[in-house]
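Can you make up a polypeptide sequence alongside its tokenized fold?
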Amino acid sequence: MKRILLLILIWSLLLISRGVGQNRSVVIDFNKTADGKVLDVSVTGRLVANNYLAAFGVTLSDVTQGTQVVILDLRRLYEGQASRGTFGNNALAHIGSNDPVSFTMNFKTPLQAIKFTRPPLMAGPTGVTFPEWKATALDAKGRALDESGESLGSYYSDDPGKTFILKGPGIKAVRFDSNNHQFAAFNAVIIENLTLIE
């Protein structure tokens, strides 16, 4: 009987230890709502992202005046000839200005890490230019924890897209700064898939 109790205790401790350190992830792919319904923005081509993101515990602040953070149907950009989705047709974009722009995502729960994907780019017959951008992970006091981004880039063959990871711990916000230098095909960075790792 003691041996059985000991085995049960060991098994229970193993199960508990496997649970410790496992991070919960929230995936936002901009093609489904927080309750799992399909998000179709094909009729209007875009949806202001504030309420959509709020359902996932994400709020926006410090959005450059005169601009919007929206969910775009990539098929409506350059008639679908500049970018395509890997996970669906929608992506998060910052629109409204050819000047340098920025916005901040704020998280209800501090994150261990955040992962996001810049969608594939299609060069077409003349190439495509993607803006310079930087993402900076911030703690609760606004201090930079990590950063990533890309330089202004011209692509003369299709680019498969790229995934970026910002590491914490303690990420309470991410600031996205973009500069299209008045000529890139897009106003700012486009995010196709966002994973919040608690």
About this structure: The domain at 24-197 is CATH 2.60.120 (Jelly Rolls). Confidence is low (pLDDT under 50) at residues 15-20.
